[in-house]
Write a structure and sequence with these properties.
Blueprint: H1 2-32, H2 37-48, H3 51-62, H4 66-91, E1 94-95, H5 99-119, E2 123-124, H6 126-151, H7 156-163, H8 171-203, H9 207-232, H10 236-254, H11 256-261, E3 264-265, H12 269-289, E4 295-296, H13 298-317
Helix pairs in contact: 1-2, 1-8, 2-6, 3-4, 3-8, 4-9, 4-10, 4-12, 4-13, 5-6, 5-10, 5-12, 6-10, 7-10, 8-9, 9-10, 12-13
Length: about 325
Amino acid sequence: MFEAVTFLIIGLVFLVWSADRLVFGSAALAKNLGISPLVIGMTILAMGSSAPEMVVSATAALAGKTDTAVGNVIGSNITNIALILGLTAIIKPLSISSNVLRRELPLMIGVTLLAGAILWDSHLAFYEGVLLFVLFAAFIIAMLQISRKEKGKGDPLLEEQESEIPTGVSNKTSAFWIVVGLIILPISADVLVNSSVKIAHYFGMSDLVIGLTIIAVGTSLPELAATIVGVLKGEDDMAVGNIIGSNVFNILAVMGIPGIIHPSILNEHVMHRDYWVMLGVSLLLVIMALGKTRIINRIEGAILLICFIVYQTYLLMNISS
């Protein structure tokens, strides 16, 4: 048991680190090749926060753990909103001023409803995985078009994203970090999934619950740190935008992976319990973010955090379901 926990921590640390290095190298190389900062910000940087979830879900699906892969998606989305934005808003209220964000929020709800339609029969099919990936590509194209229209208007989200692109990095250094990330990322994901499965079996946890709790929270911890740092730097729009973008990517890209690799019947609790929590906190976020003040205040942050604590407590009290 101690060995499994040790490897879980090691796998998580290297997963997060290698994902960060891969995104860093990719963004720097793209900039050196003359790719628009707008394109880099809306693709490489935006998808970077979902890289750990993507690799973990692929690894779990290859191991035949589709429940874990889907649980990782739903659990990560709940964690992103209820834990990360909730805790961040308690530290400092979040101000929403980006027009891009105001368009992304309804889109996030639409994608979440689509997830419900797909999971309704408690089965993730191959064609559904393909559909999600096609929609993921369409989402990227649509966001690039929207961003281009807003670029000349001084949208704060776009300006904050572009400021995060690394500069002064040589092609050799960029390529080195890309290779390092591509090698270590899948290895660390495999270690994380295998150790999580051992821990789950030891405590009698279902594959679904391990994905909703340990893996989901673990892969979201870097986003928590990045969001808090971003807000303290005054980059509220990018902090919220990263969460919204991550949730959309998780459903379209990350959930599409197990559908393609290992389509299968899912635990009935995915649709009957966990999906509704994800939809509920997503709707709460939209109501809070698009209200009259355009501010997620400390009370609203506390409400989100309480939702997360209650949900995780319930899961841990029903670990076999």
